From TrEMBL:
Identification of the protein by name: Delta-1-pyrroline-5-carboxylate dehydrogenase 1 protein
GO biological process: L-proline catabolic process to L-glutamate
The Aldehyde dehydrogenase domain, residue ranges: 197-406
Family under the similarity heading: Belongs to the aldehyde dehydrogenase family.
Keyword Transmembrane: no
Any one Gene Ontology molecular-function term assigned to this protein's record: aldehyde dehydrogenase (NAD+) activity
Highest taxon of the lineage: Eukaryota
């Protein structure tokens, strides 16, 4: 949603900042003209808290217990979430449609998608969506088209053919993509097909254990992902132009959304040719332009300031390491201590030290915030870089950047060597390479792990939300005394093939 930003009030110290970027627009209708809109995003505050309900069996429901969310900017309790405890969770196990059961529902979801697309084409409705998305973070994507398909293979015998279908996995966990495949997800506004549940991590873990879903798509920390992989017996898919342009991309990849993106740049390997340029100084200048006042840097929701600074101090004890920029808490703010608030930070650590056994886990620790490691290497040290990549377990995105606009043969060989010896699921290569592209038109998933979830393509939908099932039909002539009735004369080869085919009569299924 680039180019759109809603600025919320920065607390009593600067009330004039409460004006939004969108206030300059003269919308043809107000938010109240939309029948489904129950809140104005700019007015959500401690005095007018929003409420988040659960969607259960097509009905929005509150709860006797409410979890209060504290505003990351000023500490006011501004959102109430209907909480579900461990006693109130259960999930039925049945697929809602497949190629044989209620197949008309495939067309139904085509209609649903078409109507949703039409609604998003209406200016006042799309503006509401944009305002909500921009209010909570500068990242958004929606696009799911060309759902799964079935195909036909003709058999070699009379009356027989082979069909391949993509069947739903029954009950599963996320949104519209799995609805296409007939699953019952836990999340949306399509009434009977989806449940939307608010809970803490422990309660959701209990729900998953009791419901035993056939597939769960998880986006989050690698630690929780590994736990869920064990709990769910692996039925889970896991989601993880010159120097000026390259510096800008590095800044965006590492620090946009305060580094809170699944594919944020967490480590930068610079060839010595790049380290001799002004790349780091340009990156430093760009990072220091980020200010809380215009929300180009902001609260970190999952890591506290103390935790990030403690991690930084441990890194600075490694021989040869140094602070390149940042490393300080944000100033003059009202962000609660339960959140993180630090300036965009980069730590240099020598490549040789990174590869040491007692340093590697520390250097590659996952920090979901505006924090990255930078190192450099010489031309003959590329194998060491590849070794560092080989030992990583989070393999979602990578960028291989060439400094030659023509992408000449030598750069191509370099890129192929890196790509050929790494397993990142989505790798961007070339001068414009980055780690946080918008995967609306290409495959996007981690690699090197069969649990890796794909998004962004029809193949991804089929991989995550359906299973392959083969149906073999055979309506050929029945046998009598080992021979076919009413068959014309055939050659020996044809007779042998027919006999073999006849032995396969019945139904064969491959799961």
């Amino acid at each position: 949603m680039y180019g759109f930003l809603v600025r919320r009030a920065m607390g009593a110290r600067n009330p004039q900042k409460a004006l939004t970027w969108f206030s300059s627009f003269n919308l043809s209708r107000s938010v109240h003209s939309l029948p489904f809109a129950t809140v104005e995003v700019e007015k959500i505050s401690g005095s007018q808290p929003a409420e988040v309900h659960n969607l259960v069996q097509g009905k929005w429901a509150g709860s006797s217990n409410w979890n209060t969310i504290v505003d990351p900017l000023n500490g006011e309790p501004f959102i109430k979430v209907a909480d579900v405890d461990e006693k109130g969770v259960q999930c039925p196990k049945h697929g809602l449609h497949n190629p044989f059961k209620a197949p008309e529902r495939y067309l139904l979801f085509g209609d649903i998608s078409a109507k949703a697309a039409h609604m998003l084409s209406i200016p006042e409705r799309i503006s509401l969506v944009i305002r909500f998305v921009s209010w909570q973070g500068l990242f958004s994507s929606w696009k799911s088209s060309r759902t799964a398909k079935s195909w036909l293979s003709l058999a070699i015998w009379s009356g027989g053919n082979c069909h391949t279908f993509q069947f739903s996995l029954g009950d599963s966990s996320t949104s519209i993509n799995e609805c296409y495949m007939g699953n019952k997800p836990t999340l949306k506004k399509c009434f009977v097909d989806v449940d939307f549940i608010n809970s803490d991590g422990r309660t959701m873990n209990k729900l998953l254990l009791e419901a035993n879903p056939r597939m769960t798509l998880f986006t989050g920390s690698s630690r929780v992902a590994e736990k869920l992989a064990v709990d769910l017996k692996v039925r889970i898919k896991l989601e993880d132009a010159g120097r000026d342009y390259v510096a800008w991309v590095c800044d965006q990849d590492a620090y946009a959304c305060s580094g809170q993106k699944c594919s944020a740049q967490s480590m930068l390997f610079m060839h010595e040719n790049w380290s001799c340029t002004s790349l780091i100084s340009k990156l430093k200048d760009l990072a220091e332009r980020r200010k809380l006042e215009h929300l180009t840097i902001g609260p970190v929701l999952t890591v506290t300031t103390e935790s990030m600074l403690e991690h930084m101090n441990k890194l600075l004890k490694i021989p040869g390491s140094k602070l390149l920029f940042g490393g300080e808490p944000l100033e003059n703010h009202s962000i609660p201590q339960i959140y993180g608030a630090i300036k965009p930070t980069a730590i240099y650590v020598p490549l040789g030290e990174i590869l040491k056994a007692n340093n590697y886990e520390l250097v590659t620790r996952e920090i979901f915030g505006p924090f990255q490691i930078i190192t450099d290497y010489k031309g003959d040290q590329l194998p060491l870089v590849l070794d560092a990549l080989e030992r990583m377990h989070a393999l979602l995105t990578a960028a291989v950047v060439s400094n030659d606009p023509s992408f000449c043969r030598q750069d191509l060989i370099f890129s192929c060597e890196v790509i050929g010896n790494s397993v990142n699921g989505t790798t961007y290569a070339g001068l414009r390479a980055r780690t946080t592209g918008a995967p609306q038109n290409h495959w996007f998933r981690p690699a090197g792990d069969p649990r890796g979830a794909g998004i962004g393509t029809p193949e991804a939908i089929k991989l995550v939300w359906s299973c392959h099932r083969e149906i073999i039909y055979d309506f050929g002539p029945c046998q009598s005394n080992g021979r076919f009735q009413h068959q014309p004369e055939k050659s020996y080869c044809q007779q042998e093939c027919s006999w073999f085919s006849s032995q396969q009569s019945g139904i064969s299924a491959t799961f």
